[in-house]
Amino acid sequence: MAKADVIYINGYIYTADKQDTICQAIAVANGYIIATGTTQQINNSQYVDNHTTVYDLQGKTMMPGIIDSHLHTFWGGMQLSSCNLNYQSLTIDDTLAIIQQYLDKDSISDNTHWLQVRGWLRQEVLPIGTDITRFDLDRLNTKRPVILFSNDCHTLVANSIALEKFGLDRNTPEPTDGKIGRTDDGELNGILEDAPAMRAFDSISKLTDEQAVNIAKLSQAELNKQGVTAVMDARITETQADAFLKLQQQNQLSIRLFGARELPPDDVSSIEEIPTLLSKVKQFAARYDDKNWQPKPGIKISHTKLFVDGVMQAPLMTARLLKPYNLADEKDRYGDLYYSIEMLDALILESAKAGFHPHMHTVGEGAIEVVLDAIEKMRKALPDADIRPSTAHNELSAAHQFARYKQLNACVVFSFQWAGCSSAMVEQYQTLFGPERYSGLEAHGQYIDAGVTCAFGSDWPIDPLNEWYDFQIAMTRQIDAEHPRLNSDRNLTAIEVLRSATINAAYVLKQDEYIGSIEKGKFADLIILDRNPFTIPVTNMQNVKVLTTIVGGQIVYQQA
Q1: 139 backbone dihedrals φ, ψ, rounded to 5°
Q2: 188, 233, 367, 547: which has the highest count of C-beta atoms within 10 A?
Q3: Euclidean distance between CA atoms 531 and 547, whole angstroms
Q4: Would 210 be classed as within a structural domain?
Q5: Does residue 84 lie within any of the structural domains?
Q6: pTM (predicted TM-score)
């Protein structure tokens, strides 16, 4: 019997196993959990010798590390190191004042250097419904190209200098996978929506290797601080993967990094081209995948990503619905689908054939429906394949879709914080969707009650990185006591929430054999908390602090 490197005793240890077992003690050796049980069962000569560290939890709570199964890891680090509006609701003048102040203090004086403004949400510009345009950004006292990049990743606003550098003008044709905003007389207003926004942003996000590694370090440190031990980056690029690979080679990687490689509509013009596209994804994965999967953190490119629709909030309303938005001045607006049905079916099927798990951005029930149809075709074509398709967000669902998810063994990744709404947002939802569809908003409980595997993804930095606050919103459906409760669904329990962020997320990533629960034979990815999330008042969940984060048996974060 192998002796333990460390044992943890006298704790309240939530295992997240099938029975949601609570134990007192665990033993860890070579980065693996080798035993769980009572303190008496673990703290003895069977596991302990002179080389074993005995850690007395003194009643503190231990649980599996948080697995954040949909976020944008590297972007989060970039936001922390750039001009940041901190998600504030601001007028145009207030926004410009903050940007100008940053410009005036910035040590960079090179007029060719892009200024990327992050932490901005288009739908929060005051008064609500107001748009910032290039004509506003052109009022800034600068000759630098300036962009505002909305944290929902659906809108980019460029000043005139930036538009020129993007090569966009009034003669630019309208794209099929998004919009290029124009004035009534055809001039560009600087607003790029959906895929054109992403392409523009990607074209300027050039970093030196050293800058990229520092951003990766910063992002993983922030994640570890909140108890995150594994992540799935929902749109991984070479720059990001190279930076984390460098950290791994330097023995400094402190999260398990999973990645989804995007398959944009513009990258494939015919179904016949899809196998070639998937072969490129395979090559990308082979370049980064850790061939020796072990307790030490590694990298795995396991998913493909499809951006199926947009967002449902005004002014965009590009999320695809089954029935039109309730708009007084527009009776047939359904929102957008960024792939044809035939292309979507083929991309999901070919991803699965190539061994990748398709991961889809679906906000509206119309987008959900076409994805479920595609998954059903994939299941019929590949009945024995262990492919775990998942959809992210599902902000508006239709009643019949819960049972379809269960039947097709498809998973949902929720950003729980989106069930916390302002009064204005609740009123907007009621207007846009009417009473019948309103009951499908952020339907977390309805999915769980139908037996669907539901996981958690913070979507950072689309929203601030605040995992425990997100968990609280899942349990209250309120921003706080001063805001209304989104009464379209029930509150979740602490166990439901924490399973979504541990073993369920591991299942979505096809990693439940290795992580997600505290069980013999699994990697020792563990966190120690300052309070017990199962016994504190629900409104205290946001105050949970992580004392220690452990990945593969090694401490990667300890509260000072």
Answers
A1: -75, -15
A2: 367
A3: 10
A4: no
A5: yes
A6: 0.88
